[in-house]
Amino acid sequence: MSPCLLCDATNDDVFLTCNYPLTSRSNGALCQCGGARDAHASVALGDYFSTAIVNHWDSAQHSSEYPTDAFGELQFAGASKRHSYFLRLSWDTPPSMVYTLMTAHWGLPAPNLVVSVVGGEGRTKVKTWVREVLRQGLVKASQSTGAWILTAGMREGVGRCVGEAVRDHATAASSISLSKVVALGIAPWGLVHNRQQLVNPQVVQTLTYCSGSIDIPVLCMLVSGKASMLERVDLSLKNSMPWLVLAGSGGLADFLSDVLDNLSTAQVVQSSSEGDGEASPSVDLKDRVAERVKKHFPSEAESEKLVERALSIYQNRDFITIYHGEHEAPNDFDTVLLKALVGASKQRVSVDQSPYNEELKLAVTWNRVDIAKSELFNGDIHWRYEDLEDPMTDALINDKPQFVRLFTENGLNILDYLTYRRLESLYRSVADGTVLFQLLQRRLVERLGTAATVPTPNPQDKVASENVLSGPGSEISLFEVAGVLELLMGDVCQPFYYDALGLEQISSKRRALRVFLTFLSRCLYPWASLFIWAVLQNRSDMATFFWEMAGESVLSALSGCKMLRELSKLEGETETKLSMKELAQRFENLAHDVFSSCYRSNESRSFTLLIRKSPVWGGTTCLQMGTGADARLFFSHDGVQSLLSQIWWGDMERNTEVWKLLLTFFCPVLCYTNLISFSIESMFLCVDSLIMCHCIPHSRRPPKRPFIVSRWRQFWFAPVTSFLGNVLMFFLFLLLFAYVLLVDFKPPPPSGPAITEYVLYFWVFTIVCEEIRETFFLGTMTLRQRIRVYIQDVWNKCDLIAVTLFIIGVICRMFKWSHGFGREVLCVDYMVFTLRLIHIFAIHKQLGPKIIIVGKMMKDIFFFLFFLGVWLMAYGVANQALLYSYDPSLDRIFRRVFYRPYLHIFGQIPVEEMDENVTLIENGEEPCRVLYSNWLVVILLVVYLLVTNILLINLLIAMFSNTFSEVQANSDIYWKFQRYNLIVQYHSRPSLAPPFIILSHINLFIKRNIRKVPSIKIHHFGQYLNRILISVIKSLPNAHQMQSGMFKTKNAAHLKCLQRLLNAFPLMAANNS
Questions:
Q1: Dist. CA 365–CA 360, nearest whole Å
Q2: Which of 149, 223, 669, 989 has its CA at 20 to 30 Å from residue 763's CA atom?
Q3: What is the pLDDT of residues 686-730, one digit of tens each?
Q4: Do you find a cis peptide bond into 750, omega within 30 degrees of 0?
Q5: How far is the CA of 402 from the CAs of 56, 398, 543, 692, 786, in angstroms?
């Protein structure tokens, strides 16, 4: 800081007043401090020192401290409307106290760098290119890097140019911009115009701030300058202060650039006359420097001192960077600043042997990975893990994936870095106001026991963090993260991080809230955890990088798609919602593309990829996650459909005609003939995929069954056979139901019910048993998860309604007083059961998309009915009031207000309503009509028919056409996705259909609870392929037949697969032989 030029200078809590005696030795009307005589206080004007003679003024001895009286805010004329802070400072004020004042009291953001602009004083005209460097280079670099600019604070020279550049930037910048340019002017108090207006003698303030060390990189920028500044440059270089010199700006800057550029090859020899070990320049170098001093400063009298200063500066030339701004573009000025700092750091020797930490932090802050690669990670520096730990955290929090990639490639071990505690700190850094932050806060409040005061997650209901916690996010743990992931992922996978919290054996959520404990161990799957963290914050580039590193690319991409689509439903901001949907679609495309490559490379392994359960993602599979993510594009892939078709047809050929299945269904003996061909190719594909991933233990031996039993199971256990049986039996059920309602519906007991009705009751009972089995006894999920999954399915809701109505109807028909109501309920229930047929046709390639179209059109109808209801009420009420002045019958009012206007749409217009019918009125059947309003009723009818029949009906047709076009264009994708759900349903069903399914239930009960035989379908499709493997093993030739050549095959791939199968399962092969 420059020393003060007046006799009174202020500290941040005191100001100094000169008390030097003004005697005859004083220079006229001026004090030796430089101030005027009239500006001194009375203590200095009096001769209190008598005959004492003082030859030199000393600030510490001849000044007094008083509380500061010049501070506050001011507004510069012609500048922006924002006020600026000011404060008088003493030249010896500790910088740490000033820094604390600016950041804590003034609220200035902490700087990443301080650039001190030096030189360019006086009224010397600043060159045009220098102005552009300051405007386009320095100011923009300060905005992007968060640097402070220090100037002399004068309204002339370079200080004025910097001020104008900052003013123009503040005017052009948005009012909500977060990156403001901070410029500080440090001007001598004596040069401030009208400075007395800044002094408030009535108000003084004593501020106390904690002092401490400031660890911020500083760079001095020299623009022009006088020869007297050589001493300042020399002293700062001896303290290892980096300098950036603008060559061509004139003055001292041109002199230094000339010396450093043209004398860089000069030699420095060791002086024999000095014993201090310092290097002294050669005579030749000294002469050359002297020539340049005379060239640039011809009028300077003390040229010898300038030469000595220049030689001293030359010895520390490694701390100086020359910038030829006249020939370089100012756009990359931040690069110049960072390179200057890095170049100076290479000359320092730090105590901890890490002189580049600050420069690395600056590179991360400025997001200049190119500079970091070229200057810091070029192989010359050995980076330790401790050096990269904090920058890695900074890069993660501030969304800089390029630096994350750079650090992981240069010595940072992610296994050592990411612990569960650090993962919690990353979630605590989530920006407030985001959906993720709100969800975490609500989970935290739930854990703290105040969940009743927080509403259900709703994007429209923003809950301020200060109302939830005293410190936003300070207590967030992995328990809250696991709760958010459970909300987003649903029941697709098991809960995350329960093993780290010690809750894997706790099924009660209420109990888990009390006993959870966070471990400090390493994260088991660091890349996947970081991928989840990035996806939840909708960080596209960061999430993509972590997806590349996480492994299990297909499943990870589908998981990201699932989370983003669920988050988009909770997001209220339209722009953010759109970006989430776009990123979700991007991950679905990635999953599709990666699986395409796998399918082209190895078909069998790609099948295993779809059915493999991942421990990283909670034991789920790609098919399950794709279903939860609504990944229609992924399911439309030929590889996925090939596996589904293989599972759908079982061991039968895929091109088997339906009539053959029907014929075999009614005549089961035909399954032992050649009417239906059983494919061996599909078996080998599944076997090959299972061998690759060792899905089946080698020690498990399949049960040996005779040909009659095995062929019977091959036909009846195929999902297509189960589907066909259920369709046929469901049609018979509807025929029986219709027969009971129309022909054989007897009176209440004891006269009824009839035998056919009892058969109908038993049939519905078996249907209910199957629904209970699917809900409570299928899969590995908890009871709450199973119920939630069951309720989410639309057709399960339809089944639930049908069964409930049937029970109500049966109960009511048993009593005489409610017999008629019970029959009405059963009639409605028959409609619900009949609508259930729609789901059966989802497997059809042409009818399946049409079902989706009908479902979407139902949503369009609700919008249409809303507009129609408005017009119905408007016209109906007006029509009733105009025709009838008084009508006490509410039934007639309701029919005329709603029902008759609705019939008008379809052309049923009773014209007699507008004319008087005396007969009906006299008989009391109709109230008296108002005759004088008939003309207005006709006009309203015309308008009503115009709006409803033309406008609204055509609007509905247009909506239907748009829906049809949208679905029809992607009908194949929609059908393939819907087909998967149907295959899953019938894959898990028993082979017999209701009512004979009760036999399968009894068989399952005996096998599971008495014989303790595990299910082969419990693990979705993975265990399904065990049965295929068993059948293949039984049909394999033994080793002797393979070696002797007795087994013949035309397909070389079959032979290769057989050999691999024999090697993988020697026990099975030996048993078969």
A1: 8
A2: 669
A3: 444 443 433 344 444 445 678 888 888 888 888 999 999 999 999
A4: yes
A5: 60, 11, 12, 36, 43
